[in-house]
Amino acid sequence: MAAVAVAVVLWLWLWCWLLWLLWLWLLWLLLLASVAAVAVAAVAVAAAAGNARNVVAADETTDAIECTSIMAAEPAGGGKIWRGSIYKLVWQELAVYCACYTALHSTTQHYTASLSHRWRGSIYKLVWQELTVYCACYTAVALVYRFALTEAQKRIFEGIVLHIDQYINLIPMAFVLGFYVSIIMTRWWDQYITIPWPDSLAVFVSSNVHGQNDTARVMRRTLMRYVNLSFVITMSMISPRVKKRFPTMQHLVESGLLTEQELMIFEILNAKTANPKYWLPLVWAGAIVTKARKQGRIRDDFAQKTIMDELNNFRKGCRLLLSYDYVSVPLVYTQVVTLAVYTFFISTIVGRQFLDPSRGIKGHKVDMYVPWFTILQFFFYMGWLKVAESLINPFGEDDDDFETNSLVDRNVQVSYLIVDEMHEDHPELIKDMYFEEVVPAALPYTVASEQYRANQAINHGSTAELKVPEPLQEIMEPIIEEKSHSVVETLIGGLVQEKYKEVTVKVERKASQPDAQSVSSRRSSGASGIATPGRRRKSFFARVADKMSSPKLSRVPSASGSIRTIRSLKSAKSLTRQHDRLAEQVGEGEVLERR
């Protein structure tokens, strides 16, 4: 029995694999057939409309250039509507397939075809195991339904299939997967741009830490060694690739990034606290910068601050990488998405079975045997999930993860090259080839890039082509709106206007009468022969009265207008009482001023 079971399993697995290969070949043939059909249709339309240009081959060795010219050609009268439109894109693709299909494929494969044949980092490598298991399970259920069940059991099974197929689409697969993959992709790219690069710091060190002797060289190289040491320690904490390359601190000593004395300091600090010490080399680098400033190798404080700021930015990048490693995507959401996908496709193993056509069940008129579109759905949805899973940790060991080891080597080489080999060194200053011309008209083009010369566009803004008619360009006079200057203009009216006039006359009369103190002062000043001004400065209340009697305040609505404005006699009487009190205050103020 065991041998029979193994044989059946192997047979099922082989059958599923053959179906998978057949599906790939059918998909490829379908793609070629559709391209050929569209190409033939395009040729017919072009011949009928007369818009396609005839391409004459000038030389058999320039087939690729002819293909480029076909793609760049535009039908006569195309103009701006043709350039950049979907018609031009489709026409170019059809021209390639019709005119130079052999020339293109004799040297290189089409981009889509070359991508579909890749295995490393492809979607086929991610989902082939799950797809094989899915096809095997689907086949097993189909064989049981067709050959192992009785008629009564088939009726029950058919009811289960219809029930599952009715409710299986209630799972919002596209929404759940789309939102999840969007979060993962954003996080993946954010982690990449968070990676600290030592290039800017190396340029600052090379430009500001001066000196050609061995001491200055050691300072610059040690600064960059500490920076790269901090980066390697950080990467070894989050990347398995770097951890396998530098499993212990002793391996850093053997690689030349750490010395024995510095290793002893690490060990002493590790005995005091177990916290990560990726920042320790940057602290040493800051001390070296301070020492270089005291020795005069860094000429001013601003240069020192620039280097220290860049060191701090590098430390911040390392800290963010550790934060991304420590705080991952919530496990709950990952579980929800994974369970939703796997539950959906486990249900399709039963819900997408083809039933007996003789039963006349709606939607099951034909027995297709192989669920092609369900397999496609599994391929896309499961591939979507696998892509998200492979991008959760971009510092892992998957095919599409970041090459952290090559990044470590690159940083060390570039850092030493900038601060040592290229320090205070540059080519001889000579006149450029456009020195006399000042501004070149355009840089030269090659034959392959000649087609892009006419597509140059200067960004003048989206309103560059907007034309304003000349009658609408006339400048209009500004509209000045008169604002309300007081409650008198807007609410009161003729009733309160009379009271204001009385108060104004009274204040002006009292202000025009000089007091005894002012008369005596004028007399004394005249006796001494000192010239006195011919007019005494008005009091505060007099100036208030002048403002109240100004032309702006004199434009008060008439009595009829005030009657329409004031809604009740009670409000008018209240305003009158307020201005009576104002008049009393004016009189009291004059008395106090004289005193």
UniProtKB/TrEMBL annotation:
PANTHER family: BESTROPHIN, BESTROPHIN 1, ISOFORM C-RELATED. Belongs to the anion channel-forming bestrophin (TC 1.A.46) family. Calcium-sensitive chloride channel subfamily. Its main location: membrane. It comes from the Eukaryota. This is Bestrophin homolog. Keywords: Cell membrane, Chloride, Chloride channel, Ion channel, Ion transport, Membrane, Transmembrane, Transmembrane helix, Transport. Forms chloride channels. It is a multi-pass membrane protein. Pfam families: Bestrophin. It is found in: Cell membrane; Membrane. The chain crosses the membrane at residues 26-49, 126-147, 167-185, 223-242, 332-354, 366-384. Residues 508-595 are annotated as: Disordered. One of its GO terms (cellular component) is plasma membrane. One of its GO terms (molecular function) is chloride channel activity. Residues 518-529 have a biased composition (Low complexity).
